[in-house]
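COMPLEX REQUEST
Ligand: pyridoxal-5'-phosphate
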Amino acid sequence: MLKKRLFTPGPTSVPEEVLLEMASPVMHHRTDEFIKIAGEVFEDLKYVFQTKNDVFIIASSGTGAMEASVVNFLSEGDRVIVISGGKFGERFKDIALAYKLDVIPVELEWGKKMSTDRIKDLLEKNSSVKAVFGTLCETSTGTHFDIKCLGEIVSHYENTLFVVDTISSLGAIPCLTDEWKIDVVVTGSQKAFMLPPGLSFISVSEKAWKKAETSNLPKYYFNLKKYKKTLAKNDFPFTIPVSLVVGLRKSLNIIKTTGIEKIWEEHHLRGEATRQAMVAAGLKLLSESPSDAVTAVVLPEGIDGEKLVKVLRTKYGMSIAGGQDHLKGKIIRISHLGWQDEFDVLTAITGVGVGLKEMGCEIDIEKGLSVARQILFPSQ
Ligand SMILES: Cc1ncc(COP(=O)(O)O)c(C=O)c1O
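STATUS: Structure written out below.
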């Protein structure tokens, strides 16, 4: 029997204590018992988001919250800037176009850094921009974007909202929603939150609520005004997946007890160890600004990344992710998200070495492992 190991950047492993919690009998969502749980969850989400703003829970994958961030605060024809340096930035652009927004696309080469001056210039030249959309970690390339700096820039524009996709990064790397002046933050349950897929979360600033008053884009299920009304009673407008919320209470409890700063440090250590190990083993990183959430590694010429992913999954039970779109077959992506420890990092590195060897490609995995071990266990 294969032991399954999940190193994909979502879904990620779920701790046993969260799984057990979700296995408890399903309760009705309009009961005092559930409303009490929801109340705790709404409060604890603010801690992970580092915000005083309300955080809403939607029964959808992360893309649902992305769509909510477009339809609730904008109106047809509104001009918006969408920064995209990969698959998920492109998704924001597609959603904005689907709702007939006037998109100024800022397209970056995949894996490259963003120049915040470019956004500053664009805002200076386009005073009518109603929102800037960015991504904290572009999961398709493992790239970290300087959201803090962008938040400062956008905050000078009274009429412009700053919307950030943190689906693969909130709860893994710093995202200081209020301090960084982010109006709308969207994320999902299946990554750093250590839960199965199925819930998305969205925080909304006062500045964004003002825009909501005049927004005329069509919306029903994702109409956050409905969610705001029910939030006052720790309730939801529609039937929420109660078992996921019960699991969320547990995972938020783990996050709170561990401390968010410690969790960020742990992700940093795992990311750093993986990156340095890959380079020491003779491989190249894709991103010039790597994120601690996920590492994208360029494969040697002639190695089929899709096959490597398949070999690891079918023969060894280890799931890593491959590349998307033009990077399909060319890179692999190893997640550091959520419920992982130092030994998981060593296992993932070993897996890459074993898989590549099986495909006839020898890398210096011993050297990589030794470098990673020194980073993970510095006192030994
Ligand atoms: C940065 C980012 N944005 C958006 C998404 C889409 O989220 P979902 O698949 O939960 O709809 C993902 C999923 O991997 C992501 O990593």
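REMARKS: The longest helix spans residues 260-280. The two ends are 34 Å apart (CA to CA).
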